[in-house]
Amino acid sequence: MSRQTPRKERHTRQPSNLIPAVSDYESDAAAIHASYAPPPPRTNTELNVNVLQRYLPSIQTILSIAANAVVYTFDRNSTSWDKSGIEGTMFVCAQTPLPESKKPRACVFVLNRRALDNLVVDLARVSHVEIADELLIFKIEADCEEEEKVIGLWIHNDRDETRQINGATIQESWKVARSSGLDLEQGADAGLEAGPAMQAGGRRLSVRDLFGRAQQSRQPVE
What gap in Å lies between CA 87 and CA 109, rounded to an integer? Predict the structure, then answer.
């Protein structure tokens, strides 16, 4: 009885695309590093501009900063200054012109650390700016049949020149914004502007709102 010859196993050839490639760690790491470019580092000023634009998209650049400022309102009846409840970092900002106007704009923005209400002062609506002792005083143009409003900013002098630099920057920005004039378009559109942070719960206080709240706080509780 003859024995059957055992069959030889066939060699299965693997496709070339399934053969694992030999890796050179250093060259692979260099290739990955070359293909990935980290985002360029941003300065503190750029980060601050991005934060402010979430409240007021028209803000273009920051001209000066004070780490802490306290907002006061002036009561004509008692001829005294009252704290408004707004204090925080103050920014003097240049804004982009309105779409149909090339007039320069500027504002003072106080990012309130005590509540969601932030104060924005449109420098084109300020009729007078002066420095009296430690207060920077603004006279705000009134609407029809209203008196001028007066607010004061006390700027913490964390450095020797903080108050002086910010005061000078505000006065220069005010002169530029004031010389361009306030047209009806600017007055109407300025109050409608709101970035995503303001839409999500933050609030921009007008000077009228600021004085209305101050009057309510002075009313006696029955």
Answer: 11
Residue-wise pLDDT for 135-162, tens only, equals: 999 999 877 667 788 999 999 988 878 9
Give CA–CA dist 222/212, Å, rounded.
Answer: 19
B/e letters for 52-63, b = 16+ CB within 10 Å, e = fewer, are bbbbbebbbebb
CA torsion, ordered 198, 151, 212, 205, to nearest 10 deg:
-10
- From CA 206, how far away is CA 86, in angstroms rounded? 12
Prediction pTM value: 0.70
Provide the residue type at 24 as one letter: D
Sorting pLDDT into bands at 50, 70 and 90, what band is 183? low
* SS3 at position 110: strand
DSSP-derived letter for residue 145 is T
